[in-house]
Prior knowledge:
alpha+beta; 3 helices; 3 strands
Amino acid sequence: MGLKRLNLIMQRLQQHGLATDIPVEVIDQATSMQQQVCVGSGKNIAMGVANMKFNGPAVIIVGEVVSKRHEVALELLNAFYTREKTSTHV
């Protein structure tokens, strides 16, 4: 839903005072091996996401917190989830 309306969401946020240069990140299929990330600003994120052909579901993150992200290798996430599935918790 948010992917199809991303341009409208950004326009409305800007109409209500959000700066056009605010960092925005969209994460498609988060925490899966198909995860894709697009980082941009309020003025160009919709175009960037359209060029990447995201499928959804997606998470949209707006604000300075985007600049605090850390790169995580998807292989590490996969190894963690594989270990969690085979672990016994007491």
